Structure formats: structure tokens, C-alpha cells
Amino acid sequence: MLQRILNKMLMHVKIFKLAKVLKINPRFFFDLIIFHLSKLFRGNVDDKLIVLGGASGKAFMGNTKYLYYYLRDNTDYKILYYVKSYELKQKLERNGINTIYAYSLEAIKILRKARAVFVTHGYIDVLPIKFSSRTIFVQTWHGADIKILNSSPYFNKYIYSKWTKIFRLKLRNHELYDYVLNPSGEKKPLQILSNAFKYPIERIITTGYPRNDIFFSKDPYLSQKLKKKYGISNSIKTIVLYAPTFREKFSTKNPFSMEAQHKLNELGKKLKTIFLMKTHISESLIKIEESSNIKSIRKDDDIQELLFITDLLITDYSSVFCDFLLLNRPIILYVYDYEEYINNRGIYYDSLEDITPGPIFYSSEDLLNAIENIEEYYQKYESKHEKIKKYFNKYKDGKSSERLLRFLKLI
Prior knowledge:
Layout: H1 2-12, H2 15-22, H3 27-37, E1 46-53, H4 62-74, E2 78-83, H5 86-94, E3 99-101, H6 105-113, E4 114-119, E5 136-139, H7 153-159, H8 162-166, H9 173-176, E6 179-181, H10 187-197, E7 204-205, H11 222-229, E8 238-242, H12 258-271, E9 273-277, E10 294-296, H13 303-309, E11 312-315, H14 320-324, E12 331-334, H15 338-344, E13 360-361, H16 364-372, H17 374-380, H18 382-392, H19 400-407
Parallel strand pairs: 1-2, 1-4, 2-3, 4-5, 5-6, 6-7, 8-9, 8-11, 9-10, 11-12, 12-13
Helix pairs in contact: 12-16
């Protein structure tokens, strides 16, 4: 409703033409209006109100999902999850999740009153309002920093543009967030995040990722429930998850040719293995066909649930393996486009080998062979696996949500 009204108003003044003339991101005008409009609402903070959002309002996932569950099950806070589609709102509310549609005046009013706000990607998970000085705003983030951040024009040419400064739009990380979350206590990951976010290192807190609390669940039936949820037959002995990172537009290669997919499926039949293909929520380049032992997973399905039931993880430059390390199971890195990716995006480490907890393969043929002999590889990398796990995860106890809320003095 609010978004439609603003869009019509902005189109009326030929906003895109103006943005082009001024060489500015068109989103600036929307953010500008919301930010200054929010000042009209009183900022009387409700000490029992907590707001969460994630994945740009497109999904219920990541750290804020599991923080929501912890707050719901262990506190008496009023909690609301921000969404940006009515379809998602209806879906979540059918499952008992309290939501609010972000593009509404009520959503602005609630943000002004919130005692704490938690996001996974940025202010785009909620709205770019002027927050009360009593509101704690926490960027929980969505993964350890392996691939280089802030390379997008959106970040460098908008968030840090002269226009946001001139119009006093507080969108820069150090102005916006009270704290940023990081799972590692090691100096280098903290420094990487500080530099990437242009954010003071003393305000980066290491309490663990709430999303990883699921790995320490005491529910003896959770694995069985999740296998049923994702349609995995009891006859399957091994679950292999392929979870590559987001590749943007520069990638020209596909991970599996049709021939390789056929071989993968045949291997699955032979080993009684199911291959779950889970691409990034923003991915549009990777194409994989389903077959008897290859199953495509919805982009907005919860990867933490999938990791919980996975026996072998195949990934690449994604930090998903940092979470999976906590389960002490085999990991393979499949980097079929290594040179292309490194040249266009890059990573923060001298080489991928420095941080890999398992073997690296560059061709589907070598990957298939490794899958068939995974136990041999896992034993070979066992000590390095443990070392990298400790490097990326300071805590391994399933109490990250509790630790974060205690640090913030919210419980």
C-alpha cells in the first residue's frame, strides 16, 4: 500500500530520469522519504517489543529465524517478523509466526517503538527509518566472510555516496548498527569484517550464530521430521547437499553438464544416495534438472534444516561450510569456475586451500570419484577439519541465541 503510493508519486516526478541526471541510485528517493516520514511518529520505545527481519524481506530464514524461535519459546516479548510480500505473510502466519507487512505506516510506527531490531542482510530487511536512540539495532549477518564484500555499485555508490550524507540518511554501517555479529573469535575474520563494513572492530561481537543452535537440538525425532518434510525416502542411506554461493552475472559456466548430471544420478542409485541441489536465494544462473536421485530444493527453504540432515556437503566459496563444520561431517569444495570467480569477485585469503576443511575439485569427473570415496578423504582431512572448525566457530554449544540476548541485556 505505502510502496504503491510512493512509487506513483515518484513516477509522477519522473524519478528515474532525475536519478539518471544526478547519477544516483533511484532507491535513494524511496529511502529518503521513509527516513524523514518516520520522524513524524513518536519514538516512545516499548521495552517488550522486538522486531526481526531477514533476506531483504523475502524469506523467513537465517539468524533472525532462530532468534525468533528462541524469543518465542523462552521470553514474553512481543515479537514481529517483517516481510515484503503478502504471500510470505500469509504462509508464515499459517505457521504461527507473527508478521507485519513492511510497506505500511504501521510498520514504520512499530519500528520507531521497538526495543531491539535484528536483521541478516541490512536495513533492507525492514525499512530505512530514523530509529530511537533507545533502540538496539543488531546486524546478525549471514555468514563468515570468505568472498570479498562491498564490490557492488549499490554499496559503494549509494550507501557511501555524497547524497546519503547531504540528506542525512543514516545508512552507513557505523551509523546504523549498534553491533555486528561474527561467529569467530580469531583476529583475521574480525578484521576482515571490520574493514568490509567500515565498522569499528570493538563493536563486533562474538556470541555465535543463532541459526546454528539447531545443530545442538535435543529433539530425538528432528532428523526424521526433516527428512519427511523434504520428501526423502527411508530407503536412502546417504544425503548429499550441493549448496553453491551466489554467482552474480559474471559466471559463464554451469557446474554439471547433462552428461555429468546423468552420471551423478546413476551414482546416487548405486550408493542409495540422494543429491539435494540448493542454490542461493538470489541465484538465476545455475540450472540443474531433477531425476530419481537428484532433487531440487526451493531457494527459500531453510538451509540450516538441510545441513542438519546432510551426510556430505558440497559447496565452493560459500561460508555455508563454516556452519556445517559444527556437525563434524565431510565437506568437499567444488570450484568448477575457480579462475573466473577469483578474477571477478575474489576471496579474502591468499588461497582457498588455506581455509578449506576438505578436498578441492575443479571438474565434475573428479568430484564424482571423491563422492564414491568420501570416507578416505574425510580421514585424510580430519585434523584440518577440526582446526578450521575452531577458527570459524568460537562457540560449539547451541547457546548462541541466549548468549547474544544476555550480552544485550534483553534477558
